[in-house]
Structure formats: C-alpha cells, structure tokens
Amino acid sequence: MIDQERTSQVSEGLLRKLMYLRRELHAHPETAMEEEWTAQRITRYLEVLEPDALLTKVGGTGILARFDGRADGPDLLFRCELDALPIAEENTFHHRSTIDGRSHKCGHDGHMAIICGLAERLAADRPKQGRVWLLFQPAEENGMGAKAVLADPRVADLHFDRVFALHNLPGVAQGTIRVRNDTFTAAVNSIVMQLKGRTSHAAEPEHGINPAAAMSTIISRTLALAHNVPSDAHMRVITPVYAQLGSKDYGISAGHAEVHLTLRCWTDVELEKLQRTVEELALKVARDEQLELSIHYTQHFHANQNDPDTVDLVRAAVQAAGLHLSEADHPFKWGEDFGLFTQRFPGCMFGIGAGEDTPALHNPDYDFPDAIIPQGIAVFERIIRHD
Ligand SMILES: [Zn+2]
Ligand SMILES: [Zn+2]
Question: Ligand 1 centre and the CA of 312: distance in Å?
Fold first, then answer.
C-alpha cells in the first residue's frame, strides 16, 4: 500500500532542486545533436540516484536510465527531450539563455526536470514490479532524435510494453492534462523543390530560362490546396518556410530557384497523398516552363498514434493524482518524433497545460512554468504505481 503523500506529492525540497535544475538547463540551451553540456548535466544528476542501468551517448547525446522493480512486470518507457531551438531569447530574467541565438522555447528544459523528478521518486522507492526506463532523447526538433535512439544497437533490441511522453501546452490552464485516443500530433514532412533553368543577361531574359514565374505559380497553386481546418479529418496545412531565386547580381537573369514548404495532415496516409499532389503539380509547372525540377524531403515526423488502452492508463493516473482531465477535440498540428515510438510500441503522448496566458511554443518570450513540474511527475508516477 502506497500512501497518497509518497505517490503524488513532490516535497518542497525536491521541487526547489528541480526548479534550479530546470533554470540551469534553460540558461544553457543546445540545439539538436549538440546537446553535450545538457547530457553531461543530466548524467551527473542521475548518477547520484544510482539507477540499475545508465546508458549515455544513446543515438548521439541521449541518455537512458533504468530503475528495476522488486518483481517481474512490464517494461515502461518515459521519454523527454534534450534539445533547445535556434531562437534568440527575449526574456531578461535571471535564468535567461546565455547562448546567443539559442533558447529553450519548447519547454524541453521543463520536461527534463519532470523526468529527473520521476527518477528521484523511483530512486527513493523502486517500483513494485517491472522496469522503468527514462529516456532523455536528443534532437526532437529536427525529427532526427527518436530515429537515432531507436537505431542505437543498445536500444534496437529492447522491447517496451508501453511508452509515454508529455508535452506542455500553452493556452491550456496550468496542470490540466489533455488526452486523446488515436492521433495526438500531426504527420509532417518538409518538401524542398529546386528549379533549374538557364541564366542569361538581365537585359535579355529571352535567351535564358528564368524560374521566377514557375516558382510563384508553384507557391500559389500549392497554397490553394491548403485546408487548415483542424476539426476536419482531411486537414491540410501548407506553410511556405523559405524561398530563394537567383542572386543579387543585377546583370543576371535568374537561372535557379527553390521553394521549401512544410506539409501537415492528420495521418501518414493523407500526408503521403498530399505529397504526391504537390509533386505532380510542381512537375507540370516545371515541364511547361522547360525547367528541371528536383524534389527532396527533410524533417519528417510520423503522426503520433496513441493506443486507446494506454491512454486509459493515463486517464486513470490523472484521476488518481487528483488533476483535471480534458479530452482534446482534435489532434495538435505540430510534428513530434515520439510518433516513431508509438509506431513500434503501444503508447500515449499527452499534454499538460502551461497556463492560459503563456506565450506560445517557439515564441521568443516563452518560458516553461515551474509550477507544473510536480503535476507532470504525479501523472507519470501514478502510471507506474497504479494500485
Ligand atoms: Zn518544439
Ligand atoms: Zn517540444
């Protein structure tokens, strides 16, 4: 029998320690696959807690710790992310970023503090049964980290009975847990289209092939396919992120252009269809203008598919922890590479409210609210100690 105090309440002392850790991580942001300092800091934090296994450099800079239960049982994985973003911080508080042009604008510093808090609780009182794996995953923001972790030979053969992750949600009341069966985050891919024509004298564009008109046609026709309606199963979000044409040489008519767009749908199948449509459209425009077209993709995220039984475990844990539970009407439009884990293992990603008036994710003034650290720990801990 585990009492309420021990399962769902984080002591003042531990909360203070986690808050300092979170702020320290916030002040030292590192972007995808460069999370060396962060990984070292987390490793030092975990070593003291004497987990039963502690793997470092997992899939690059990742860390995987294991806490064994007193009896056999399921293997549960809890995942957080190490990486920050290439965004300059606008905040001026004491723990602001000390690295130019880098900051924790997705709250991964807070997610790490929650998993460290969970490690503290498991170190103090091992799970009754099974094994708990805590993963600090690199490179979530570019969609490379989950893939790298799962390809690590030390992880590739592991089997997890269930996998869990949370993400903070600005715009939602602090500590409210938002869940959803099936799709939780969108399928996302980034398409890069390069058009090759022929340069000529700027005075004689007729002697070259300038891709400007094709470029703008491709952008406008592609944008016309957009259907940015999250309540619709056939949602299509198409966002131009970058475009380039020719060079700033005023004697030269441009001979090269490129267009980068992100494409988002609710399912991998729908995204696949949208990709084909955009490709065919671009190919036709390029052919009409006698341009060479090459296409490649980058930063692909599979849709994150939650397993309904695993979501039920989260629902029960939220209730047991005395937190407010809300069901999401539709999935979230961002990409999350946790989708690779839920493709392989039954899992659940859920949201935890960061506050109604908090800046949005990736805003330059965003900061993770420390107040939700204990709630995050409580839900994870209740999933482990559910009886
Ligand atoms: Zn992010
Ligand atoms: Zn994130």
Answer: 26
Whether residue 368 has pLDDT greater than 90: yes
**Residue where one domain finishes, among candidates 256, 275, 301:** 301
Domain that holds residue 249: 187-301
Rounded CA-CA distance 144/101 in Å is: 21
Same domain, 200 and 265: yes
350 C-alpha to center of ligand 1: Å? 15
One domain, residues 128 and 248: no
Report the C-alpha gap between 262 and 189 in whole angstroms.
6
Residues 365 and 380 in one domain: yes
* 293 and 376 share one domain: no
Q: What pLDDT band is residue 387 in, cutting at 50, 70 and 90?
A: low
- Name beta bridge partners: 55: 64
Query: Rounded to the nearest 5 degrees, what angle is found at the Cα of 277, between the Cα atoms of 231 and 283?
Result: 150
Model confidence pLDDT, tens digit, residues 307-344? 999 999 999 999 999 999 999 999 999 999 999 999 99
Instruction: Give me ligand 2 centre to Cα 66, in Å.
Output: 23
* Token code pair at residue 124: 């103090």
CA–CA separation, 97 and 353 (whole Å): 23
- Ligand 2 midpoint to CA 72 (Å): 33
